[in-house]
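Worked example 3. Consider a protein that binds iron/sulfur cluster.
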Amino acid sequence: MRYVFGPVPSRRLGRSLGINNIPPKNCSYSCVYCQVGRTSNITLERRSFYPWKEIVEEVVNAVKTLGEEKIDYITFVPDGEPTLDAFLGKEIGEIKRRTNKPVAVLTNSSLLFEEEVRNDLFEADLVSVKVDAATEKVYRRINRPHSKLSLDRVLDGIREFSKSYKGGMITETMLVKDINDKEDEIKQISSFIAGLKTYKAYIAVPTRPPAEGFVRKAGEESVLRAYEMFSELMGREKVELLIGYEGADFSIIGNPVESLLSITSVHPMRIDYACELLQKVGLNPEKVLEGLVNEGKIAILEYGEHKFIIKKISYHY
Ligand code: SF4
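Given these inputs, the predicted complex is written out as structure tokens:
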């Protein structure tokens, strides 16, 4: 397989069959946390990178071989920016015509100010847009964009897309310590996202080795603060954490402690609710929570008037 990989399990997309439609590494950004490394070709030029019909053929064959029931989403998630592919719209349209699977695109959103790019993405069933910054200075530090890009233009493009898009839109915000995790920045990011027609906002920390050695994951305090600030504007059900807990499965039955860990890796939980939950199944909440803190599995933090439990963020990549 040249262009297709997986399916890989994804919390956002279930079993996702990945498409790599951009060779490494062509991107409009060179994010400090990028897991593919620094961008060798920072570009805004849309063009053909591979024969688009070959990509479609390979996807259709992979779906046939694997069986449609094994795949939840077909996802454009390349080693670069997928919208740089001038044939993206054609590929999405053709894949949708020839399979019965929804198509998702994970984009850095930098080209959404172009009508042509928005039109291509209108074809997709789900689009994830990146919003890591709300001020130009932070934007330049974290995403290191092409010199012709400006944050205002990018945010306008996202707004414009959000107004007319009929599919499901989600956002992803990667929090990097001392770069974009300050209260002011988060406040502005959350109010921008709350103004979009998005059904879920994900708050992430880098979980794979980053392009730059100085990158550190935002700590639990910043992540909790971001979660609460987003939730105040959007409602808790619309905000989720992606902080690197692979086994997040809410349906763990019979093991309340694992279940608690799994929930708190996605939604920080008020400590009084957690105690209630543990008490209900006959456990001693103080003992269990103390044990989890000592084992380095959870952190207990205060935010506003309450104490919360959040899954401890591992500092190893
Ligand atoms: S936008 Fe994505 S591919 Fe491009 S540099 Fe950032 S993380 Fe890497």
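Take a moment to read the result before moving on. The two ends are 28 Å apart (CA to CA). Residues 4-242 form a domain with the TIM Barrel fold (CATH 3.20.20.70).
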